[in-house]
Amino acid sequence: MNPLCTQIHYLLSPKSVVIVGASADYSKFTGRTVKYVLRHRYPGKLYAVNPTRTEISGIPCFPSVKDLPEAVDTAFIQIAAKGVPGVIEQCIERQVKSIIIHTAGLGESGEEGKKTQERIKAQIREAGIRVVGPNCAGIVNMTESMILSPIACYEIDDLPAGRIGLISQSGGLTGAYVSRAADRGIGFSYVISTGNEMDLGVSEFAHYLLRDEHTDAIAIFLEALRDVNLFREVAVEAMNRRKPIVVLKVGRTEVGARAAASHTGALTGADTIYDAFFRQYGIVRVETLEDLFEVPALFCKAKPPKGRNVGIITTTGGGATIVLEAAAQAGLQFPPPSDSAIREATAFLPSFAAKSNPMDVTMSGAGGGFKKGLELLMKDDTFDMIVGVVGTSSQFEPHLGVQPIVEVCKDATKPLVAFCNPNAADALRLFEKNGIPSFRTPESCGRALGYLVKYGEALDGFNRGKGQQRTADPDSPNAAKALNILVTSGQILTEYDSKRVLSTYGIAVTREKMTGDVEQAKQAAKEIGYPVVMKVMSADIPHKSEAGVIKLGVPSESELVAAYGELLAKAKRFKADVRIDGVLIQEMAAKGVELIIGMKRDASFGPVIMFGLGGIFVEVFKDVAFRVPPISLSDAREMIGEIKGEKLLNGYRGMEKMDCEAIASTLMSVAGLSLDLGEEIRELDINPLIVYPQGKGIRVVDALICR
Question: Quick one: pLDDT at residue 505?
Fold first, then answer.
């Protein structure tokens, strides 16, 4: 066990516990913690701190922590905020190994609370004690009957232990997860509320659960990641260990985002980055509260299927159709059964029964039709997974559909899941008892199958080379050359200087020359060859088309001379005190498909790479994909495949296929540049990047770097 896991182990598996602020009144929060730890028969040593009592419900009670007869593994603190620093000091003096602070009113509530929390943070850092909280709902270890939480869901007797480790940044929601899951017979190995994450947080507990033998899947309710780098390490190791991480991340809408200088900045919101990060590291992002225990429960029972083909057997057409539509939205497919399967089905199904997919056995289920049909689909190589949809019989006549699913599952050779139309609690518990994934709604059933397939595909992609990432190399010759350009530039680089930086990383740019007067411009155009493009270079004009300071396809010297003065005049009309570096004379790039590649530096994640269809309407169509460096070539190729415009790159309606490998290579170079140069670059746009047919590469036509 590594040092971090050893420290967390005292919190999650303590052999001795003291409840500070314990009450004998079970109607109070401070009494409920005592009630639940006793109710669920915690097997370790228990102590309480309450200066007015000598015992509470048989638990020995002491005036203070320093009066305890031994150094305990964990202290659970539930007193007023102002008294917490003093108790922490006593815990340090008494050599308590770990602390849970349930107390609220600290870092989340005003300046005084923040100061108190910072004081506590300094105390524990100096002492080397690990803490969860403050403002947390406690910690539960169901595998050892250790309930240190006042949440009312622990009134439930005989809560099932399961194989899902739950980490939640919302304390109150832990009760919803535990009670809803228990109603289905679904249990957790651990329930961890992280609160303000003053010390330990989501990343640290995920690190522990990844190595825990009682946990097969990790479920996380997430508001924000505090330690992205550790979580990235956890995610990579989770892929290696094939232990799924399922996240319900709130905050899809972002209000009041900072105005950005680049297109990339405008398109890259916080939730967009989380989406990219999750996709990149095989983390399954779910949509609803029930998804957060149904989907990990599915992963605990079923391995990812070999493909995307789903077979559905049902006693109710409507319910099956909703499952089908939800799964289809997740990208799954529903081919008809094989010809031989249809012939076999004809022998036992009535003529009016649908023998396609879904296979609707109607009332023939009473004659064993459901079980026969289920066995038929299970052995049909057409299908990679099977869904059994049962109507009202699941509640009132379980022998018709529910029991056949249980029986067939014993010898199942592919994933088999179940959905019951009515709220058939007994049937759902029976499925859970027999290791059959089941769902309360048809939509959640269809979505979950999609998650299972995509997780399997993420594992396959990871195994094919996800680990071969281009990491930071700040001492490389390329970085040194780029840095020399950056240190002599302002906050916003001109297109010319931005392209010079890109060129140091081998990224192909247009042939061009910077000119300071019309004579230099004439000479440059003669060397490059007409027609040319003319652009005013000014850090005050990051988007040249908006100011009209760009002229395309200048065919001759006479028109170049006329345009030169005209462009300078437009620049001055756009901004009276505009700073002009010169006029760029550039080759007229051949036509191809216009793309955008960008980078934005995020405070938490660092550089974020964007790719999509480019041009002036990039912010309108928003057809873009994101990744968080370091990335692999596989990541770069996936980005290309994720945009809707991917068809334009792969021979749409007879068009030539574009050089996608050159795009992927450029994405890798931009990712490397963003890592090597670190804080030197805040935002980067390459727009447009023109890609040409296979073997003909790419060309950067315009670029913008913001420092």
Answer: 97
Q: What is the pLDDT of residue 265?
A: 46
149 touches 139 (CB < 8 A): yes
Residues 571 and 651 grouped into a single domain? no
- For residue 19, is it within any domain? yes
3-state helix, strand, coil in the chain (%, to 5): 45, 20, 35
Q: Number of helices and strands (H, E) in the chain?
A: 26, 30
Distance CA 480, CA 485 (A): 9
Domain count, the chain: 4
| pTM attached to this predicted model | 0.90
With beta carbons less than 8 A apart as the criterion, state whether 23 and 34 touch. Answer: yes
Confidence of residue 470 (pLDDT cuts 50, 70, 90): confident
DSSP 89-121: HHHHHTT--EEEE---SSTTSHHHHHHHHHHHH
How far apart CA 667 and CA 684 sit, in angstroms, is 12
- Both tokens of 508, joined, read 């192909």
Output the pLDDT for position 47.
Answer: 98
As to burial, measured by CB atoms within 10 angstroms (0-12 exposed, 13-18 middle, 19+ buried), residue 428 is buried
Residue 271 domain-assigned? yes
Bond into 477 cis (ω within 30)? no
pLDDT of residue 81: 92
Q: How far apart are CA 80 and CA 20, in angstroms?
A: 11
Separation between Cα atoms, residue 294 and residue 306, nearest integer Å: 21
Nearest to 320 by CA among 376, 361, 372, 364: 361
pLDDT tens per residue, range 97-106:
999 999 998 8
d(CA 554, CA 559): 6
For residues 443 and 645, is the Cβ–Cβ distance under 8 A?
Answer: no
Same domain, 232 and 165: yes
Provide the Cα torsion 679, 683, 687, 691; round to 10°.
40
Instruction: Give all strands (DSSP E) within 85-208, no chain letters.
Output: 98-101, 130-132, 139-141, 146-148, 161-168, 188-193
135-172 pLDDT per residue, tens: 999 999 999 999 999 999 999 998 999 999 999 999 99
Residue 607 sits in which domain range? 593-706
